[in-house]
Write a structure and sequence with these properties.
Layout lengths: L10 H16 L14 H12 L5 H9 L6 E2 L5 E2 L9
Antiparallel strand pairs: 1-2
Helix pairs in contact: 1-3
Length: 90
């Protein structure tokens, strides 16, 4: 996770997310190829704290440090897809 400081209480979540990444890739899940990189602490602060004044929990920071949603895609029928794993910050 790019530049993310993971508190001790989030270390297990971090490890589980890494395992999920590995599992998705092993299974050939298409989403694995379109996941955006995670955000750094600075990017999270810029996107949430500085812009709207919210403070994210350690778990939310770990989540967005893992992946920041997915790339925007156009589905075969021409409709937009790839709205994100859990939305995107910034």
């Amino acid at each position: 996770m790019r530049g993310l400081q993971v508190p001790a209480d989030s270390a297990r979540l971090h490890a589980q997310l890494d395992k999920l990444d590995e599992h998705l890739r092993r299974q050939g899940a298409q989403i694995a190829d379109v996941l955006e990189p995670g955000l750094s602490e600075h990017d999270i602060d810029d996107a949430v704290m500085d812009s709207v004044g919210l403070r994210l929990s350690a778990e939310a920071r770990t989540w967005f440090g893992w992946h920041n949603g997915t790339r925007r895609l156009t589905l075969a029928d021409g409709h937009p897809g790839g709205m994100g794993v859990c939305g995107r910050l910034g």
